Amino acid sequence: MLESSRVGFIFSVILLLALSIPCSCSRLKSVARTKSAVFLSPKIVLEPGSVSNKLYYGIDFPRGHIALKDFIAEVVDEAGNPIPLYETYLHHWVVERYYGSKHNDSDFILVANSGLCQTDVLRQYYGLGSETRRTATHVPDPFGIEVGNAAEIPSGYEEKWLLNVHAIDTRGAEDTLGCTECRCDLYNVTKDESGQPLKPDYIGGLSCCYDETRCRVREGFQGANRTLYLSYTVTWVDWSDFIVPVKIYILDVTDTWKALNDSNVKSTEHQCKIEYDVKESCTPTGTSNSTCIDSQRTSLSLPSGGYMVYGVAHQHTGGIGSTLYRKDGRVLCSSLPIYGTGNEAGNEAGYIVGMSTCYPHPGSVKIIGGETLILESNYNSTRTHTGVMGLFYILVADQVPPL
Ligand SMILES: *[C@@H]1O[C@H](CO)[C@@H](O)[C@H](O)[C@H]1NC(C)=O
Ligand SMILES: *[C@@H]1O[C@H](CO)[C@@H](O)[C@H](O)[C@H]1NC(C)=O
Ligand SMILES: *[C@@H]1O[C@H](CO)[C@@H](O)[C@H](O)[C@H]1NC(C)=O
Ligand SMILES: *[C@@H]1O[C@H](CO)[C@@H](O)[C@H](O)[C@H]1NC(C)=O
Ligand SMILES: *[C@@H]1O[C@H](CO)[C@@H](O)[C@H](O)[C@H]1NC(C)=O
Ligand SMILES: *[C@@H]1O[C@H](CO)[C@@H](O)[C@H](O)[C@H]1NC(C)=O
């Protein structure tokens, strides 16, 4: 009895497959096996106040011609326990793709995303910060980020991946927010990582919390050194013609690019500054409608058009949302921060623990090459914030599959 029902089950599976093969591609596609693997970064050793901002070349990553479908991450200790942001603030992590020479470790070619910033700035495939645990990053079917295509890899090279993790140990910090905002006075830093003196008006940001710097800790605070890792889970499928590739663009609200309205003059170069400061500013108090919002805007355009498949903003503490819209005001995607309300990892009170995302119905949001897009990033300016960011990460497909 048992045997015959099992045979019956196997038979019906074969029948289902047989029926699906000749009929439609979407049926076949759903049979494509999704694979997933969990990896650990190299060790990150931290003590109270310390900063680790290192580059890890040649990290573990799936091999072969594949379509990346998802990349999720979190900071864990040696036992695999999640570490909350108020102990180790995950300022950011980024994952970049490159071709490394098979014979010479120092010879490599960065394989950048599709733009838009200047060379070597924000050219990652993936990257988030404190919002990592609760931000959706999956690429919907039938789309995927194509990597590992042997036909594109120069001979003598192999595709590799680079991870940068910027973590700040804020245990015992005298001013936790100040440490996470990299305020130069708290780090006692007056020169940048390369030894250049900082400009007097530079009061906080990445130039003050580089690798091995130290943020001020309360007098007498004791905390053990600890070894942490970025645990990352990659999900992918083997490449097939049924997958529609997407391009990755990262837009930065600090980009000073200008489209010049003259066919004889080229547009200016992109110049992304990555970070900016929010000054304390409120409309006069006393009025019934006083607001404290810092709103930054920039106009940009994509070199080629396509369909938006996914969108998400990146902001720091104080962020109240970011929107990408068309010149006529129609919204392409609005991404809002989720602030934690508790104590546990993934819900730390006062921290941005997630960003809302956009997954437009495939084909519904078309961006035309050269079309003016406006990126707006809003922060609460009740108080000053240093080194904040206003990025927008979008995935764009050249085409959408026929419905
Ligand atoms: C390795 O590559 C680097 C960077 O391209 C180059 O400067 C160096 O000369 C190369 N070393 C050898 C042994 O070829
Ligand atoms: C800050 O840096 C200066 C010079 O680099 C040094 O003399 C001073 O002791 C430092 N202060 C603290 C609190 O570390
Ligand atoms: C932590 O590690 C540093 C070196 O990275 C060492 O100087 C220090 O003594 C250690 N502290 C403790 C409490 O083990
Ligand atoms: C660009 O110039 C053309 C003709 O000179 C004009 O019609 C158009 O409005 C201008 N566009 C912008 C954005 O200034
Ligand atoms: C307050 O300001 C906002 C935006 O500036 C405006 O939309 C709103 O109508 C104002 N409310 C009042 C009560 O004035
Ligand atoms: C800005 O922050 C202040 C202080 O935390 C808060 O009272 C206010 O509601 C916030 N405003 C917005 C627009 O989020």
From TrEMBL:
Q: Which UniProt keywords apply?
A: Signal
Coiled-coil-forming residues are none
The stretch of residues making up the signal peptide is 1-25
Q: Is Signal tagged as a keyword?
A: yes
Which domain of life does the protein's organism represent?
A: Eukaryota
One of its Pfam families is SURNod19
- Stated name of the protein: Stress up-regulated Nod 19
Q: Which organism is it from?
A: Rhamnella rubrinervis
